[in-house]
Protein backbone atom coordinates (compact mmCIF):
# COMPACT_ATOMS: atom_id res chain seq x y z
CA UNK A 1 0.00 0.00 0.00
CA UNK A 2 1.18 3.52 -0.77
CA UNK A 3 1.20 6.45 1.62
CA UNK A 4 -2.03 8.03 2.78
CA UNK A 5 -3.08 11.34 1.30
CA UNK A 6 -5.79 13.69 2.52
CA UNK A 7 -8.48 14.50 -0.02
CA UNK A 8 -10.56 16.82 2.13
CA UNK A 9 -11.00 17.91 5.76
CA UNK A 10 -13.51 19.88 7.80
CA UNK A 11 -16.30 17.32 7.75
CA UNK A 12 -18.30 16.57 10.87
CA UNK A 13 -18.92 12.88 10.21
CA UNK A 14 -18.52 11.47 6.70
CA UNK A 15 -20.41 8.30 5.77
CA UNK A 16 -21.73 6.32 2.79
CA UNK A 17 -18.99 7.25 0.25
CA UNK A 18 -19.70 6.32 -3.37
CA UNK A 19 -17.63 6.91 -6.53
CA UNK A 20 -20.04 8.37 -9.10
CA UNK A 21 -19.47 10.25 -12.36
CA UNK A 22 -15.85 11.12 -11.67
CA UNK A 23 -16.25 12.29 -8.08
CA UNK A 24 -16.50 10.84 -4.60
CA UNK A 25 -19.93 11.48 -3.10
CA UNK A 26 -20.45 11.16 0.64
CA UNK A 27 -22.88 12.06 3.40
CA UNK A 28 -21.73 14.48 6.09
CA UNK A 29 -24.12 13.39 8.81
CA UNK A 30 -23.32 16.23 11.21
CA UNK A 31 -23.68 18.94 8.56
CA UNK A 32 -26.73 17.27 6.91
CA UNK A 33 -25.09 17.58 3.49
CA UNK A 34 -24.42 15.30 0.55
CA UNK A 35 -20.99 16.41 -0.67
CA UNK A 36 -19.20 15.57 -3.94
CA UNK A 37 -15.39 15.83 -3.99
CA UNK A 38 -13.12 15.55 -7.03
CA UNK A 39 -9.63 14.08 -7.05
CA UNK A 40 -8.12 17.53 -6.45
CA UNK A 41 -10.14 17.99 -3.26
CA UNK A 42 -12.59 20.50 -4.73
CA UNK A 43 -15.94 19.93 -3.08
CA UNK A 44 -19.55 20.87 -3.72
CA UNK A 45 -22.64 20.52 -1.54
CA UNK A 46 -25.08 18.68 -3.82
CA UNK A 47 -28.14 18.48 -1.59
CA UNK A 48 -29.05 19.05 2.06
CA UNK A 49 -30.84 16.38 4.08
CA UNK A 50 -32.39 17.26 7.44
CA UNK A 51 -32.33 13.70 8.77
CA UNK A 52 -29.74 11.85 10.84
CA UNK A 53 -28.52 9.36 9.72
CA UNK A 54 -28.76 9.37 5.92
CA UNK A 55 -27.07 7.32 3.18
CA UNK A 56 -27.08 7.32 -0.63
CA UNK A 57 -26.96 5.27 -3.79
CA UNK A 58 -28.29 5.57 -7.35
CA UNK A 59 -30.97 3.85 -9.37
CA UNK A 60 -29.82 2.46 -12.74
CA UNK A 61 -31.46 5.43 -14.49
CA UNK A 62 -29.22 7.83 -12.55
CA UNK A 63 -31.71 9.11 -9.98
CA UNK A 64 -30.24 9.59 -6.51
CA UNK A 65 -31.83 7.72 -3.60
CA UNK A 66 -31.37 8.98 -0.04
CA UNK A 67 -32.19 6.95 3.05
CA UNK A 68 -33.57 9.63 5.37
CA UNK A 69 -33.01 7.41 8.38
CA UNK A 70 -34.44 9.51 11.16
CA UNK A 71 -37.60 10.20 9.14
CA UNK A 72 -38.05 6.50 8.19
CA UNK A 73 -38.21 7.49 4.51
CA UNK A 74 -36.47 6.59 1.29
CA UNK A 75 -36.24 9.78 -0.76
CA UNK A 76 -35.62 10.30 -4.48
CA UNK A 77 -34.00 13.34 -6.07
CA UNK A 78 -35.95 14.88 -8.94
CA UNK A 79 -34.39 16.64 -11.97
CA UNK A 80 -34.96 20.03 -10.32
CA UNK A 81 -32.82 18.89 -7.35
CA UNK A 82 -35.68 18.49 -4.91
CA UNK A 83 -36.05 15.43 -2.69
CA UNK A 84 -39.42 13.67 -2.77
CA UNK A 85 -40.70 10.58 -0.91
CA UNK A 86 -39.96 7.35 -2.76
CA UNK A 87 -41.01 4.80 -0.10
CA UNK A 88 -42.28 5.14 3.47
CA UNK A 89 -40.27 2.72 5.61
CA UNK A 90 -42.01 3.25 8.96
CA UNK A 91 -44.36 0.34 8.40
CA UNK A 92 -41.42 -2.06 8.24
CA UNK A 93 -39.52 -0.63 11.22
CA UNK A 94 -40.20 2.51 13.25
CA UNK A 95 -36.57 2.85 14.35
CA UNK A 96 -33.96 4.80 12.33
CA UNK A 97 -32.79 3.37 9.01
CA UNK A 98 -29.16 3.19 7.98
CA UNK A 99 -27.39 1.96 4.83
CA UNK A 100 -28.44 1.27 1.23
CA UNK A 101 -27.05 -0.55 -1.79
CA UNK A 102 -28.74 -0.71 -5.19
CA UNK A 103 -28.26 -3.80 -7.38
CA UNK A 104 -27.86 -3.61 -11.16
CA UNK A 105 -31.52 -4.53 -11.68
CA UNK A 106 -32.71 -1.59 -9.57
CA UNK A 107 -33.51 -3.55 -6.42
CA UNK A 108 -32.49 -1.49 -3.41
CA UNK A 109 -31.49 -3.11 -0.12
CA UNK A 110 -31.76 -1.04 3.04
CA UNK A 111 -31.24 -1.80 6.71
CA UNK A 112 -32.38 -0.57 10.09
CA UNK A 113 -30.26 -1.21 13.16
CA UNK A 114 -33.45 -1.84 15.15
CA UNK A 115 -33.05 0.76 17.89
CA UNK A 116 -32.38 4.47 18.30
CA UNK A 117 -28.72 4.63 19.26
CA UNK A 118 -28.65 8.42 19.34
CA UNK A 119 -31.51 8.45 21.87
CA UNK A 120 -29.66 6.03 24.12
CA UNK A 121 -31.92 3.03 23.54
CA UNK A 122 -30.57 -0.43 24.41
CA UNK A 123 -29.32 -2.46 21.40
CA UNK A 124 -31.93 -4.54 19.63
CA UNK A 125 -31.72 -6.74 16.50
CA UNK A 126 -32.11 -5.03 13.13
CA UNK A 127 -33.61 -5.94 9.78
CA UNK A 128 -32.90 -5.79 6.06
CA UNK A 129 -35.52 -4.65 3.57
CA UNK A 130 -35.92 -4.79 -0.19
CA UNK A 131 -37.40 -1.93 -2.23
CA UNK A 132 -38.16 -3.06 -5.77
CA UNK A 133 -38.25 -0.75 -8.82
CA UNK A 134 -42.06 -0.57 -8.64
CA UNK A 135 -41.80 1.02 -5.18
CA UNK A 136 -42.95 -1.93 -3.09
CA UNK A 137 -41.03 -2.72 0.09
CA UNK A 138 -40.74 -5.81 2.24
CA UNK A 139 -38.52 -7.25 4.95
CA UNK A 140 -36.06 -9.85 3.65
CA UNK A 141 -33.95 -10.62 6.76
CA UNK A 142 -34.16 -10.10 10.51
CA UNK A 143 -32.15 -10.68 13.70
CA UNK A 144 -29.02 -8.91 12.46
CA UNK A 145 -26.62 -7.38 14.97
CA UNK A 146 -26.33 -3.67 14.05
CA UNK A 147 -26.50 -4.02 10.25
CA UNK A 148 -24.20 -1.57 8.54
CA UNK A 149 -22.44 -1.45 5.15
CA UNK A 150 -23.61 -3.70 2.31
CA UNK A 151 -22.30 -4.77 -1.08
CA UNK A 152 -23.72 -6.77 -3.99
CA UNK A 153 -21.43 -8.99 -6.04
CA UNK A 154 -21.07 -8.07 -9.74
CA UNK A 155 -23.11 -11.07 -10.89
CA UNK A 156 -25.97 -10.04 -8.62
CA UNK A 157 -26.00 -13.39 -6.82
CA UNK A 158 -24.82 -12.41 -3.32
CA UNK A 159 -25.34 -9.63 -0.80
CA UNK A 160 -22.63 -9.11 1.83
CA UNK A 161 -23.54 -7.32 5.06
CA UNK A 162 -21.41 -5.92 7.89
CA UNK A 163 -22.82 -6.84 11.31
CA UNK A 164 -21.01 -4.37 13.53
CA UNK A 165 -22.03 -5.85 16.88
CA UNK A 166 -21.27 -9.43 15.84
CA UNK A 167 -17.74 -8.81 14.45
CA UNK A 168 -18.55 -10.47 11.16
CA UNK A 169 -19.43 -10.11 7.53
CA UNK A 170 -22.55 -12.07 6.60
CA UNK A 171 -23.55 -13.26 3.13
CA UNK A 172 -26.94 -14.04 1.62
CA UNK A 173 -27.91 -15.55 -1.71
CA UNK A 174 -30.12 -13.17 -3.73
CA UNK A 175 -33.17 -14.98 -5.09
CA UNK A 176 -34.86 -14.26 -8.41
CA UNK A 177 -37.51 -12.13 -6.70
CA UNK A 178 -34.88 -10.19 -4.75
CA UNK A 179 -35.39 -12.10 -1.53
CA UNK A 180 -32.45 -13.28 0.58
CA UNK A 181 -31.66 -16.88 1.54
CA UNK A 182 -28.82 -19.16 2.64
CA UNK A 183 -27.55 -16.83 5.34
CA UNK A 184 -23.97 -17.63 6.33
CA UNK A 185 -20.85 -16.15 7.89
CA UNK A 186 -18.69 -14.77 5.06
CA UNK A 187 -15.88 -13.72 7.39
CA UNK A 188 -15.53 -13.85 11.17
CA UNK A 189 -13.55 -10.78 12.25
CA UNK A 190 -11.80 -11.11 15.59
CA UNK A 191 -12.50 -8.07 17.83
CA UNK A 192 -13.49 -5.92 14.83
CA UNK A 193 -16.53 -3.69 14.42
CA UNK A 194 -17.12 -3.57 10.64
CA UNK A 195 -18.94 -0.41 9.53
CA UNK A 196 -19.02 0.66 5.88
CA UNK A 197 -17.73 -1.83 3.29
CA UNK A 198 -16.82 -2.07 -0.39
CA UNK A 199 -16.02 -4.98 -2.67
CA UNK A 200 -13.15 -5.30 -5.15
CA UNK A 201 -12.95 -7.25 -8.40
CA UNK A 202 -11.13 -10.17 -6.75
CA UNK A 203 -14.07 -10.66 -4.41
CA UNK A 204 -12.28 -9.27 -1.36
CA UNK A 205 -14.03 -6.85 0.99
CA UNK A 206 -12.63 -3.70 2.54
CA UNK A 207 -14.28 -2.85 5.86
CA UNK A 208 -14.00 0.29 7.95
CA UNK A 209 -13.53 -0.14 11.71
CA UNK A 210 -14.23 2.81 14.02
CA UNK A 211 -12.93 1.62 17.43
CA UNK A 212 -9.81 0.01 15.94
CA UNK A 213 -9.07 3.05 13.72
CA UNK A 214 -8.35 1.11 10.57
CA UNK A 215 -9.57 -0.08 7.19
CA UNK A 216 -9.00 -3.77 6.45
CA UNK A 217 -9.15 -5.91 3.32
CA UNK A 218 -10.26 -9.51 3.90
CA UNK A 219 -11.07 -12.49 1.73
CA UNK A 220 -13.97 -14.89 2.20
CA UNK A 221 -13.19 -16.98 5.26
CA UNK A 222 -11.68 -14.03 7.14
CA UNK A 223 -7.99 -13.98 6.19
CA UNK A 224 -6.62 -10.44 6.37
CA UNK A 225 -4.97 -9.29 3.15
CA UNK A 226 -4.15 -5.62 3.86
CA UNK A 227 -4.62 -3.17 6.73
CA UNK A 228 -4.53 0.64 6.63
CA UNK A 229 -3.97 2.15 10.08
CA UNK A 230 -5.47 5.58 10.81
CA UNK A 231 -5.27 8.07 13.66
CA UNK A 232 -9.06 8.26 14.11
CA UNK A 233 -12.11 6.10 13.61
CA UNK A 234 -12.72 4.81 10.08
CA UNK A 235 -16.44 4.90 9.32
CA UNK A 236 -16.69 3.83 5.71
CA UNK A 237 -14.76 3.20 2.51
CA UNK A 238 -15.15 3.14 -1.25
CA UNK A 239 -13.07 2.16 -4.25
CA UNK A 240 -12.95 4.55 -7.18
CA UNK A 241 -10.80 7.02 -9.03
CA UNK A 242 -9.94 7.03 -12.73
CA UNK A 243 -8.89 3.36 -12.72
CA UNK A 244 -11.01 2.22 -9.77
CA UNK A 245 -7.92 1.51 -7.68
CA UNK A 246 -8.10 4.36 -5.18
CA UNK A 247 -9.33 3.43 -1.71
CA UNK A 248 -11.22 6.32 -0.13
CA UNK A 249 -11.85 6.28 3.64
CA UNK A 250 -14.04 8.56 5.72
CA UNK A 251 -12.60 9.06 9.19
CA UNK A 252 -13.36 11.18 12.25
CA UNK A 253 -12.68 11.30 15.97
CA UNK A 254 -15.50 9.45 17.75
CA UNK A 255 -16.34 9.87 21.43
CA UNK A 256 -19.79 8.28 21.41
CA UNK A 257 -23.26 9.01 19.99
CA UNK A 258 -22.89 12.72 20.75
CA UNK A 259 -20.09 12.85 18.16
CA UNK A 260 -22.71 12.65 15.43
CA UNK A 261 -23.78 16.20 16.13
CA UNK A 262 -20.35 17.47 17.18
CA UNK A 263 -19.30 20.67 15.43
CA UNK A 264 -15.59 20.00 15.96
CA UNK A 265 -15.31 18.92 12.31
CA UNK A 266 -12.60 16.31 12.74
CA UNK A 267 -13.89 14.42 9.70
CA UNK A 268 -11.59 13.70 6.77
CA UNK A 269 -11.55 11.80 3.51
CA UNK A 270 -8.28 9.92 3.16
CA UNK A 271 -7.05 8.07 0.09
CA UNK A 272 -4.45 5.49 -0.83
CA UNK A 273 -3.76 3.17 -3.74
CA UNK A 274 -5.51 -0.21 -3.58
CA UNK A 275 -4.21 -3.51 -5.01
CA UNK A 276 -7.39 -4.17 -7.00
CA UNK A 277 -10.15 -1.99 -8.53
CA UNK A 278 -13.62 -1.84 -7.11
CA UNK A 279 -16.56 -4.02 -8.11
CA UNK A 280 -18.79 -0.91 -8.14
CA UNK A 281 -21.78 -1.96 -5.99
CA UNK A 282 -21.32 0.16 -4.06
TrEMBL record:
<keyword id="KW-0378">Hydrolase</keyword>
<feature type="binding site">
    <location>
        <position position="195"/>
    </location>
    <ligand>
        <name>a divalent metal cation</name>
    </ligand>
</feature>
<feature type="active site" description="Proton donor/acceptor">
    <location>
        <position position="195"/>
    </location>
</feature>
<feature type="binding site">
    <location>
        <position position="148"/>
    </location>
    <ligand>
        <name>a divalent metal cation</name>
    </ligand>
</feature>
<keyword id="KW-0862">Zinc</keyword>
<keyword id="KW-0479">Metal-binding</keyword>
<dbReference type="GO" id="GO:0046872">
    <property type="term" value="F:metal ion binding"/>
</dbReference>
<dbReference type="InterPro" id="IPR011042">
    <property type="entry name" value="6-blade_b-propeller_TolB-like"/>
</dbReference>
<feature type="binding site">
    <location>
        <position position="98"/>
    </location>
    <ligand>
        <name>substrate</name>
    </ligand>
</feature>
<feature type="region of interest" description="Disordered">
    <location>
        <begin position="258"/>
        <end position="282"/>
    </location>
</feature>
<dbReference type="InterPro" id="IPR051262">
    <property type="entry name" value="SMP-30/CGR1_Lactonase"/>
</dbReference>
<comment type="similarity">
    <text>Belongs to the SMP-30/CGR1 family.</text>
</comment>
<feature type="binding site">
    <location>
        <position position="95"/>
    </location>
    <ligand>
        <name>substrate</name>
    </ligand>
</feature>
<feature type="binding site">
    <location>
        <position position="15"/>
    </location>
    <ligand>
        <name>a divalent metal cation</name>
    </ligand>
</feature>
<dbReference type="Pfam" id="PF08450">
    <property type="entry name" value="SGL"/>
</dbReference>
<dbReference type="GO" id="GO:0016787">
    <property type="term" value="F:hydrolase activity"/>
</dbReference>
<dbReference type="InterPro" id="IPR013658">
    <property type="entry name" value="SGL"/>
</dbReference>
<feature type="domain" description="SMP-30/Gluconolactonase/LRE-like region">
    <location>
        <begin position="13"/>
        <end position="253"/>
    </location>
</feature>
<dbReference type="InterPro" id="IPR005511">
    <property type="entry name" value="SMP-30"/>
</dbReference>
<feature type="binding site">
    <location>
        <position position="116"/>
    </location>
    <ligand>
        <name>substrate</name>
    </ligand>
</feature>
<protein>
    <submittedName>
        <fullName>Sugar lactone lactonase YvrE</fullName>
    </submittedName>
</protein>
Amino acid sequence: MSALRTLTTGLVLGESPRWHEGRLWLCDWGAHEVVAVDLHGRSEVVVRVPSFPFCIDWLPDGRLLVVSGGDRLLLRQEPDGSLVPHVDLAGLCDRPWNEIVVAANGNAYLNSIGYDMMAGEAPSPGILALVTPDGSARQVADDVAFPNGMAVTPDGSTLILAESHASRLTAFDIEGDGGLSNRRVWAALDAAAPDGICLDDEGAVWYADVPNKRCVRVEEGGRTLQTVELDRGCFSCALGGDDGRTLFMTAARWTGPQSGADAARTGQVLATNAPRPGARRP
